[in-house]
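Format notes (please read before filing issues)

Several people have asked whether sequences and structure tokens are stored in separate files. They are not. Every record keeps both together, in the order shown below: the sequence lines, then the token lines. Line labels are part of the format and must not be stripped during preprocessing.
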Amino acid sequence: MDTIDILGTPIPNAGPVFLSALAVHVTAGITCVICGAIAALTRKGSPRHMRFGRVYLWGLAVVYVSLTVMSVIRWRENIHLFGIGTLAIITALTGYANRRQRPDVHILGMGTSYVLLLTGFYVDNGPHLPLWDRLPAIAYWLLPALIGSLLITRAIARRRHPNAPART
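Then the structure lines:
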């Protein structure tokens, strides 16, 4: 299959439906990255945290629908990305469902979905990104999980022990 070059990134020329889904996918993905980061960095339970968290979740739903469309068109090439996306939406919905009764599960679910979102991006685009293109392919899979698991663990610990002194 031939490709189209957009800003140095080869894009499969899989027809207008694929390209339309990709445009929606990229827009929703950028929204998720920004809103997920804001939700993670704001005070838990605050109106801002809840607003950006909801936008993240709805954006992730759009990412998943557009991913599904692109995966139907290019199943062999996208099956691994579809698997990552499926896990991302499941963990996000699990986190959302537990936002009140089980806050640790909420943090774990939403944080894991964000890590999976970034993993999918890096697995698909890492070979075309400056600096990332110098890393071995396994790094695209492992670095987001490694960094994300440390941040998620820290967030859960801080929730459990809010008055503990910060370590330097």
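For reference, the curators noted about this record: The two ends are 52 Å apart (CA to CA). The helical segments are 16-41, 47-73, 75-97, 103-125, 137-160.
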